[in-house]
Amino acid sequence: MPFAFADGFKFSDMERWQQELQQCIRTLDKLETHVPTKNRERMREVLKNMRLSITPHTAKLIDFTNPNDPLFLMGVPQERELTVTPEELVDPIGDEAKSPIPFLTHRYKDRVLIYATFSCSHYCRFCFRRFKTGAANPGPSSDDVNRICEYIVAHPEVDEVILTGGDPLTLLDAQIEDWLRRLREIPTIARIRFHTRVPVNLPSRITDNLVTVLDNHQDATHPIFLVTHFNHPREIATENIEVIAKLVRAGVVIRNQSVLLRGVNDNVATLTQLFKSLTNIRVVPYYLHQLDLARGTNHFRVPLEQGIELMRELQGNVTGIALPRYMLDLPGGHGKIPLTPIFLTKQATGTWLAEGPFREQLRYDEPMV
Ligand code: SF4
Question: How far apart are CA 204 and CA 348, in angstroms?
């Protein structure tokens, strides 16, 4: 559980988002009230690898009568998670290989990831960081936080910090404020990013006070970015739209990264609706990720060739301001690369063969310089 409340602290004393966290579906017994569990023994094994939490907000959106419902697939554990392919890895993108001190990954020169907590409000069945989030793992202690800040000060080439996890917005306001205050004391840090699925699964967490905390720690040249994680248009419900509008009004810059997931969003119509709906609420689609090689997630994986073909189709369907880049995070901590359809092939010096967005084959002659 993400919180420990002092003795005597009552449910009615909690803020609404904290009450909702207490009401999540976290056990097989509670899940049974929505959908029957066929094989309890096997499901217990599944939950040993990746814990369960479905927020009340998302539970209302899931069609529990339909096992193929995209929101059902993303939130409800399945026996298929016990199947692990030889290619799947414990730490699929090499976070640990690029971790010079605990709770920090330094993969790219100009930015670091900080794991502020390993708790989430809602556990995604395709989670790529399940080796940390899958069970209750402690977050950084105050000594760890000191070491993290000392590391960043000693690396002035770092001008961006990404607070991730887990989900950093499951921390209390005071904890978030502490992180922001410590990071803003480091003069080389310009941009602070939060990677969070809270605006999707627990929109009540975006309280007025939280928005004030965020806004108090940004100015004209030191922005706060919030990178959300909407994967399906049905996740963009009324309450989600309201909290995004609240964040936008406070000047928080919002981007979205989706994951390409089989049975969830692996078709042109769903991705088009997702990317356009996000853009309409002023959330810029930023990345579409190829699913990382996390253990037990193969039933969600879309072949690379199919993903590239989807991007080719989207090129002619979706306005450029709504079209994200399709990315592959290479195993071993080697970083991300864009997966781009080939639209241009060199024929001879100055002569190219182009395939237009509507599939016409065209010759393009390049003026000599
Ligand atoms: S919110 Fe992120 S870290 Fe948490 S379960 Fe989902 S993918 Fe994993």
Answer: 58
